[in-house]
């Protein structure tokens, strides 16, 4: 008999077909169990079976229509279905239900960035930072959006603040002939699990000079994010 931990383990390993079999078996024995529906919905969305994933999140909300986490996950699926107005509406609803959680602002900011509302994304990241001044991830992501808009000084300040919060110091070279540190492109460090490996909108070339050490720290400090966000780095090289 499979258990939920086995399914979650398979899911984290990227073995989605096997994970789906586990969750299907579990739901056959215990129909509409919220925690199992949640993980099956995430597996289905990673497999590109978005309509089926949405059905699971719809069932979840029937069990608890005021659960902000369920609503946020559903919003991601709506976004992948290109139903962006509905997705934003759902994130608004999650924020209204959980207004004291800065994560609600940063997750909405992430989606606004994805769909091109860059000024709106910055406003939401700034609100998240106001509520949680030690949120290095929001500083990092805000810097990315600021750079897209050409706000170079503002983006540099955001990246510097993120670096300071995670304890990263760029290398300094005394000799002008010394080799320079190879820049590494920053990418959003908060990405909904369902968006991993999904195509992202084309953006201008970015050139940044630090790397991320925040994965373990953020996941351990932000319990809500541990369920909704995973942390990845760009697979794209810096363009000349």
From TrEMBL:
TPR repeats lie at residues 68-101, 102-135. It holds the Pfam family TPR_11. Gene3D superfamilies: Tetratricopeptide repeat domain. Residues 195-205 have a biased composition (Polar residues). Residues 170-205 are annotated as: Disordered. SUPFAM superfamilies: TPR-like. Keywords: Repeat, TPR repeat. This is Tetratricopeptide repeat protein.
């Amino acid at each position: 008999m499979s258990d939920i931990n086995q399914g979650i383990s398979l899911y984290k390993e990227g073995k989605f077909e096997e994970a789906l079999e586990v969750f299907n078996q579990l739901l056959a024995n215990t129909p509409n169990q919220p925690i199992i529906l949640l993980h099956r919905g995430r597996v289905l969305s990673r497999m590109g079976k978005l309509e089926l994933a949405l059905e699971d999140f719809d069932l979840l909300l029937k069990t608890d229509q005021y659960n902000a986490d369920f609503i946020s996950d559903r919003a991601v699926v709506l976004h992948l279905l290109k139903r962006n107005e509905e997705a934003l509406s759902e994130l608004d609803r999650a924020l209204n239900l959980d207004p004291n959680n800065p994560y609600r602002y940063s997750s909405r900011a992430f989606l606004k960035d994805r769909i091109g509302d860059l000024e709106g994304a910055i406003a939401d990241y700034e609100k998240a930072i106001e509520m949680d001044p030690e949120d290095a991830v929001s500083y990092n992501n805000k810097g990315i959006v600021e750079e897209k808009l050409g706000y170079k000084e503002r983006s540099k300040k955001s990246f510097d603040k993120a670096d300071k919060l995670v304890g990263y110091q760029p290398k300094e070279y005394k000799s002008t002939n010394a080799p320079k540190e190879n820049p590494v492109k920053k990418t959003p460090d908060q990405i909904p699990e369902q968006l991993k490996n999904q195509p992202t909108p084309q953006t201008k070339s970015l050139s940044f000079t630090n790397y991320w050490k925040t994965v373990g720290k953020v996941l351990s400090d932000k319990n809500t994010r541990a369920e909704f966000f995973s942390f990845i780095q760009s697979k794209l090289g810096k363009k000349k």
